[in-house]
Amino acid sequence: MPSKNNKLSLSVQYADPRLKDTISRAQLRRWAQAALFAPAELTIRFVDAEEGRRLNKDFRGKDYATNVLTFAYTEDEDSEVTQADIILCADVLQREAAEQHKSVESHTAHLVVHGVLHAQGYDHEDDDEAAEMEGLEIEILATLGEANPYSA
């Protein structure tokens, strides 16, 4: 399990300010810290659908806005500090929370944990990787008092 003792340098950017009064820097720090296996330097940036779509298209070749994008700069195991930018699309995040009957806070907690795990090299490209990553997410979110995001 991750350790709450890992040092975290966190920058938060609200390029899309809609969630600035809903999601605090302290919440983001708590959620990110809960998912860390090593010290990290992270930026979490909230964007609108236009910026989210552009980033997803430019870097992943997918022409739509997605809920979370992680740009990991130190995925190798030799790195002492995880460095990454985690992009959260406010439009998609809010829509998904409503569709899944979850609070925006709970859904954001899940996406932050998901993004931080990606920053540390976890992925879900095949069934085994997906099962491992989802299991970690469920465990980490439980420590934060959040429900299993994958249960119906």
Overview of the structural elements:
The protein is α/β, with parallel strands linked by helices and 152 residues long. The protein has a single domain, classed as Metalloproteases ("zincins"), catalytic domain (Collagenase (Catalytic Domain)). The protein is 43% helix and 18% strand. It is built from 5 helices and 4 strands, in the order βαβαββααα. It has helices spanning 25-34, 49-60, 90-99, 104-119, 127-143, and strands at residues 8-14, 40-47, 68-72, 82-89. It has a 4-stranded mixed β-sheet. The chain starts with 7 loop residues before the first strand and ends in a 9-residue tail after the last helix. The model has no long low-confidence stretch (mean pLDDT 93).
Structural key phrases:
Collagenase (Catalytic Domain); 152 residues; alpha/beta; four-stranded mixed sheet
* Helix residue percentage: 40-55%
* CATH fold naming: Collagenase (Catalytic Domain)
- Low-pLDDT stretches: none
Number of helices: 5
Which structural class is indicated by helix and strand composition?
alpha/beta
Average per-residue pLDDT, rounded, comes to 93
Q: How is the secondary structure organized here?
A:
Layout: E1 8-14, H1 25-34, E2 40-47, H2 49-60, E3 68-72, E4 82-89, H3 90-99, H4 104-119, H5 127-143
Parallel strand pairs: 1-2, 2-4
Antiparallel strand pairs: 3-4
Helix pairs in contact: 1-4, 3-4, 4-5
Please outline what is shown here.
The protein is of the alpha/beta class and 152 residues long. Helix content is 43%, strand content 18%. A 4-stranded mixed sheet has the order 1-2-4-3.
